[in-house]
Amino acid sequence: MRFSNSLVSLAAVVPVALASIPYSQYILAPKSRTLHPVSVHSTNGSVTHPESLTSANGSSVFTGDAATAYDFGINIAGLVTVTIGSVNSSSSEYIGVTFSENELLNRVWYAGAYTNQICTIEPDTGNALVHLREEGFSSEDDQSPVNVTWYNNYTITSGKSALVDGAKRDRLVWAGDMAIAVPGVVVSTNDVVSIENALDSLFAVQNATNGLLPYAGRPFPPQAISFTYHLYTLIGVADHFLYTGDMDYLKSLWDKYKFALSFSLSNIDSSGLMNVTAPNDWLRFGMGGHNIEANAILYYTINQGIYLASALNDTANISSWQETADGIKTAANELLWDEQEGMYRDNETTTLMPQDGNAWAVVANLTLNSTQTSMISQNLVSRWTPYGAPAPEAADAISPFISGFELQSHFLAQNTTAALELMRLQWGFMLDDPRMTNSTFIEGYSTTGELHYAPYNNDARISHAHGWATGPTSSLTQYVAGVQLLTAGGATWRISPSLGDLKFADAGFRTSLGFFGARTQVLDDSIMLDFEAPEGTVGEVRIPVLECAGRVVMSGMEGLSGDVVVEVMAGQGDVDVKDVKGGRWTATFRCT
To answer: In 3D, which of 567, 516, 525, 558 has the Cα closest to residue 5?
Structure first.
């Protein structure tokens, strides 16, 4: 058995022997943050020895109207440095960066990890948003292809690193983006410090009067209000505690957390649902009223809050929070569920069946039964275009952000086939289309596959390295390989691989308690599982065993007195073994 920190491999067949560093062929991150171009992409005009500038000590002379574009081999971000020896006449310098391409799901996992790496920046290189301070400047001007200047010289957080939305734009802290990026970071680089700095920057500007958290961190205007992004910040706190078990950090934010949650609860009206009175969200249209997405996110957040309060033994609000959450679930299903369509409506006044609200209803467990969950999964699949899952709430748009939650909804609906198909379809397109970077994931694009994102007038504004587009990185680890933390830091855990049409999955990551990993092989008549969890922890193992009816025999786990025989029903061959102590284990599951 072989595991290493933050690795993943998935394949349709069992692979041959691993390299000395597992899966190193997929790792895009360089060993140093100082990079040199790998080649000259193109040169125009009179340029001497342009290839020499691909090394540290090269020298080149540009005469007249001349330019050279350099290829770094992968998508990169940061400050470009060129030393100019002398200028003999009036001239301009232009530095261009172009990109080149590099087993699909493996590449998707690593590209997601890399995207989040280059979306982690030095805090003093954030977007200064200089035009938003100019008199007469409007958001429409900001989307113009001309007369817009980006100054990346604003200090957006404390510390030495921060997780932001995009590597090149916006370079700001956005809590919504973190809801996808943070799990991806944890299962890949585990850069917790950058997550903490980002979260702290949002709580630093919390409204002292009503507890409202900002739409985005500084220097974004504090007047912008988003009911959903406010909640995403609270989700960030709960995610941080789940992945780290850091009680001290949770305590440092707990009073602010409760104050913020009270803002959302105060907006629940007589319907039992939160009434959204601000339009801002992830650039979808029509946000407002008893919106299904916002209420599903609130339901999810309240339940996280109940867990956090229990962990802190601060139980005063638990009963009322639970009653409120139950009311949201009841009201959402009574007012917004459309049985004929098999989906939730955006609100009571529309026939729109949104991607975001329906995906989030499944993720949040707002559905009443598995039939609803399955219907949503099937109906979301029925809408796919050749380029991915559309978000009709944003008109002509495919949103990798919301599709990240759709991926989770398919896994939770036990529709692994759909989830893997969507990864191959949508993220495969984003990774391999020649118009993309072939190493990072884009912010959004058209349902036709064109590089146009409906919320923007200026196509050049689209970010080609956006952390909110990295959903497969965490989903492949947590759902396909099935390595799941159930309580803080992994004190309790679940190994529940779900491979779909795959025959092999290998993934693992580390928390403060130690390493968690699982390696699954599907053979003709059995499933072999090697897994690991830290000593002192306890968990469960859940295996969807082939097509068994009658008996399943589990053998090979230490501490078990002989084989374990499990009776299963036809078509329901899941085996669930509870109270497994942490350690290194090997088990074989076979039908008899």
So the answer is: 516
Residue 18 DSSP class: P
Residue 337 β-bridge partners: 344
Burial 289-316, CB ≥16 within 10 A → b, else e: bbbbbbbbbbbbbbbbbbebbebeeeee
Burial of 386 (C-beta count, 10 Å sphere; 0-12/13-18/19+): exposed
Q: At how many degrees (to 10) do helices 355-363 and 370-381 cross?
A: 150
Full 3-state SS string of 63-76: EEEEEEEEECCCCC
Specify whether the CB–CB gap between 230 and 216 falls below 8 A: no
Residue 536: what pLDDT?
Answer: 96
The architecture (CATH level 2) of 481-591 comes to Sandwich (2.60)
Distance CA 549, CA 552 (A): 8
Distances in Å between the alpha carbon of 187 and those of 4, 472, 542? 12, 11, 20
CA atoms of 253 and 251, how far apart (whole Å):
5
DSSP summary character for residue 49:
-
| Paired strand residues for 164 | none
Nearest residue to 440 (alpha-carbon basis) of 449, 431, 452, 428: 431
Predicted confidence at residue 72, as pLDDT, reads 84
- Please tell me the distance from the alpha carbon of residue 245 to that of residue 418, in angstroms, as a whole number: 33
Q: What are the residue ranges of helices labelled H in 267-354?
A: 292-311, 318-335
Q: Which residue type, as a one-letter code, is found at position 9?
A: S
480, 508, 580 from 4: Cα distances, Å: 18, 7, 22
Query: Do 456 and 411 form a contact (C-beta atoms < 8 A)?
Result: no
Query: pLDDT value at position 16?
Result: 39
**pLDDT value, residue 22:** 74
pLDDT at 4: 34
pTM, 2 dp = 0.88
For the domain covering 116-477, report its CATH number.
1.50.10.10
Query: Taking the chain (592 residues) in consecutive chunks of 10 residues, what is each chunk's mean pLDDT?
Result: 43 42 79 83 86 83 81 78 63 39 81 96 93 64 61 95 95 98 96 98 98 96 94 98 98 98 98 97 96 98 98 98 98 98 97 98 98 98 98 96 98 97 98 95 97 87 96 97 97 96 93 95 87 95 71 58 54 75 86 69
pLDDT at 90: 42
Domain ranges of the chain: 39-98, 116-477, 481-591
Task: Look at the alpha carbons of 368, 369, 370, 371 in this order and tell me if their dihedral is positive or negative.
Answer: negative
Helices 292-311, 227-244: inter-axial angle, 10-degree rounding: 40
Confidence at residue 135, expressed as pLDDT on a 0 to 100 scale = 66
Residue 313, phi then psi, degrees to nearest 5 = 55, 35
pLDDT at 562: 54
Which two tokens mark 142? Answer: 């900001």
